[in-house]
Design a protein that fits this description.
Layout (H helix, E strand, L loop, with lengths): L3 E7 L3 H15 L4 E4 L4 H7 L5 H8 L3 E6 L14 H12 L3 E7 L19 E7 L11 E4 L5 E4 L6 H16 L4 E6 L5 H17 L4 E6 H10 L6 E4 L1 H12 L9 E5 L6 E5 L16 H13 L4 H16 L13 H11 L1
Parallel strand pairs: 1-2, 1-3, 3-12, 5-10, 8-9, 8-10
Antiparallel strand pairs: 4-5, 4-11, 6-7, 11-12
Helix pairs in contact: 1-9, 1-11, 5-6, 7-8, 9-10, 10-11
The chain binds adenosine-5'-triphosphate and magnesium ion.
Protein name: 3-isopropylmalate dehydrogenase
Family: Belongs to the isocitrate and isopropylmalate dehydrogenases family. LeuB type 1 subfamily.
Subcellular location: Cytoplasm
């Protein structure tokens, strides 16, 4: 049976960059069946909701989902359930993608780009594995109310179950085995019970299933400091939802432009992963052909590697992007003047 890839272009620059990624996929894996559907504001305009049941079912029946971006000023004032961002959250929940992979990789060709120099760390190559479906983002009880004495308060609950930690830690171990074999697990075990539990569970799992993996632990505040001080010490960083969010944005800034950063969100084996650029819908440049397609193209690279089991095609895409950059291809965010289409063609030329 043919493998299926579902494109969810979404809003803003989403359609421009997913079209670029689809063009690349057609070249490196021509036998994959590519479908397309609506999400976010585009879906609200058509169906009144940011994600229909049909589209979620279609996503679940695919082998991988490539999403562009959702949101924009047009829908910003809508009530919570009618916001484009809810489409993305419902999709993540519906696919149960609990492991969010954010590589922070610096392309050698960009090290000398003078417009980026202040941010870029030469030779940087690390992967952050963030738990995506639990922790303080979802824990109950949560709320804003008043206590017995009438004092107003806001609160959230940080809670992790053993299976939730185990499944994401397993992903981190597996990824490390294909890299330098080192996992640094991050929490605040000095002040949080859920952090201490996290550390103990990861340690136990490592004893049982950590063959070929060197495990270390770091407190989240120290990790933030070390990421800025000496980022190249890390191989794989494993973190919960909240710390992973903060640390992956920190690491992102060491690589250059937001237009270069892909992400993958994976569920249990055999279910489709969700792949998307880290950047948003960028309404300020939408529809002008100015968007850098690399983040979407590299998200496609991750789809080929992690959900479609085509490492050779993924390697080809990675090399083509690196070579195109080396040959001087640059969109505006990288200090050049290529359009989205011209940048895509420059990458295709290298395939
Ligand atoms: P969101 O809330 O969806 O994350 P945002 O407004 O925080 O959206 P982006 O939409 O990513 O963030 O845009 C941030 C800035 O980066 C904007 O100035 C945008 O033009 C720029 N930008 C984002 N993606 C790209 C891209 N692929 N190529 C070039 N510039 C980009
Ligand atoms: Mg943002």
């Amino acid at each position: 049976m043919k493998q299926k890839l579902l494109l969810l272009p979404g809003d803003g620059i989403g359609p421009e960059v997913t079209a670029a990624a689809a063009k690349i996929a057609e070249l490196v894996a021509p036998d994959i069946e590519i479908g397309e559907a609506l999400v976010g504001g585009a879906s609200i305009d058509q169906h009144g909701v940011p994600l229909t049941d049909e589209v979620l079912a279609q996503a679940k029946a695919s082998d991988a989902v490539l999403l562009g971006a959702v949101g924009g000023p047009k829908w910003a004032d809508a009530e919570r359930t009618k916001r484009p961002e809810m489409g993305l959250l419902n999709l993540r929940k519906g696919l149960d993608v609990f492991a969010n992979l954010r590589p922070a990789y610096c392309f050698e060709a960009l090290v000398d780009a003078s417009t980026l120099k202040r941010n870029v760390v030469e030779g940087l190559d690390l992967m952050i594995v963030r738990e995506l479906t639990s922790g303080v983002y979802f824990g109950e009880p949560r709320g804003i109310d008043s206590d017995d004495k009438g004092v107003r308060r806001g609160y959230d609950m940080s809670i992790y179950t053993a299976p939730e930690i185990e499944r994401v830690a397993r992903v981190a171990f597996e990824i490390a085995r294909g890299r330098d074999g080192r996992v640094c697990s991050v929490e605040k075990s000095n002040v949080m019970e859920s952090g201490l539990f996290w550390r103990n569970e990861v340690t136990a799992l490592h004893k049982a299933h950590g063959d070929g993996v060197e495990l270390s632990h770091m407190l989240a505040d120290a990790c933030a400091m070390e990421l800025v001080r000496q980022p190249k010490q890390f191989d794989v960083i494993l973190a919960d939802n909240l710390f992973g969010d903060i640390l992956s944005d920190t690491a992102a800034m060491l690589t250059g432009s937001i237009g270069m950063l892909p992400s993958a969100s994976l569920g249990i084996e055999g279910t489709p992963g969700l792949f998307e650029p880290v950047h948003g819908s960028a309404p300020d440049i939408a529809g002008q052909g100015l968007a850098n397609p690399c983040a979407a193209i590299l998200s496609m690279e991750m789809a080929l590697r992690w959900s479609l089991a085509r490492p050779d095609a993924a390697d080809r895409v990675m090399k083509a992007v690196a070579h195109a950059l080396k040959a001087g291809a640059r969109t505006r965010d990288l200090g050049g003047d290529l359009s989205t289409g011209a940048m895509t063609d420059a990458i295709i030329d290298q395939l």
